[in-house]
Amino acid sequence: MAPKGGGKGGGSHSSGSSGSGSSGSSAPTNWTRQTTLLGGHFKQPAVVAALAFACLCLAGILAVAVWSFIVKPKGRKVFKWFGLPMAITAATLSMALDVTDRFLHELEVTVPAPYAFINLVSEYFFLKSSVLLLFIVYAVINNRIQCIWKDVSHFRIWKLVHLVFGVALALIFFIDIVIYLTYYIKYFSSPIGTLSYSAFVWLERWRKVNAAFHMLYLVAAVDIMVCAVVIASGARSRRVPSLISKYLLIIIAPLLLLRCLILGVYSINFTLLLNTVTGAADIAYVILCGIPTVIIFAGLVKIATQGDWFPEYQAVHQGNAPPDQHAYAPQALYPAPNAVAAPNVYSGQNVYAAQGAYPVQNVSYGQKLGVTGETQPWVPPPPPPPPPQQQHPYYDTSYQRQI
């Protein structure tokens, strides 16, 4: 998992360098040196606790990854290979590299200096999973809006904001990786035991870009939390209950906000300001960032298995259609207490019509909702027969006979 504090970079792994000097015009560079990783041989309780929680998170994300490949998603392409499974795979690789790096540090092994590239690879997989996670959650939000409101014209600005957040974070992710790679190339091209000025400049640029990424991601997480609250409120008021809306409000949005808050504080405090990472801070980072990540991806896999993914799912088939869908066929969907079965002169079907109520005018619309069968053109009803005429009693012969 990344980021790893202010020590992130080539110097985070060095306890000193043992490289043989060479005589000649060109001095040996950091590419050729060996470095011994700093560690405590598992004697520091805080470091061991952080390692244990990191292993726990790795086991959890591995289980979620296996689950994501076993289940058959019922939603859109965001749950297929280039969506959710790829995001989970990237998060798994990032956590695996983090656990491996922690173990090697505790063993204090001697490695070639380019081993520090493990930070770059871990950073790549971590940011990649974060960007994919954002697009997946936005897809879930967009689907819930379409399922609840149908008319999404009122949410165009919101969708535009989501697009801006996604594109901006993807662009910053690309810039972050390019700057970090440039820094490593500059660093390893410097003479042994030194950091060239150009490498230092690129490292400072990376710190600012990395902090900007996590700050913007935090703002996006706040936006997702607001969306989850609006969606849950709309689903309740419009009578469209769904487990997807509940998972989004209870699991995905709050844990994503917590995860982004921890990453933002960690990036500002330790990556940008170069404060020393303490054991307690490392434990808090692993617990409050790793465990929510596992739960968020597990919740998304659970959402992928739900059958009420719009438009494949139609709420009206389960009796949960919004009220505005029933505007033109109330008697057909909700029979009145004194309703009787009456012949439908429009389509030959039997519908419920309340005594004394107006007849259903748009039967074809109700038929499209699956109420009265196949769609047929509307035919006006025949005029009612004239009422029988009664004669006046004065002209009634029977009355005259009684007189």
What can you see in these coordinates?
The protein has 403 residues and is mainly alpha-helical. The chain is 57% helix and 4% strand. It is built from 10 helices and 5 strands. It has a 3-stranded antiparallel β-sheet, with no helix packed on it. The longest helix has 41 residues, at 197-237. The chain starts with 16 loop residues before the first strand and ends with a helix.
Main pleated-sheet profile: 3 strands, antiparallel
Topology pattern, helix = H, strand = E: EEHHEHHHHHHEEHH
Q: Indicate the mean pLDDT.
A: 76
Question: Which class of secondary structure composition applies to the elements?
Answer: mainly alpha
Q: What kind of oligomer do you see?
A: single chain
Helix content range: 55-70%
Q: Any low-confidence stretches, pLDDT <50, length ≥5? A: 5-25, 313-373, 397-403
Query: How many helices?
Result: 10
- N-end to C-end Cα span: 111 Å
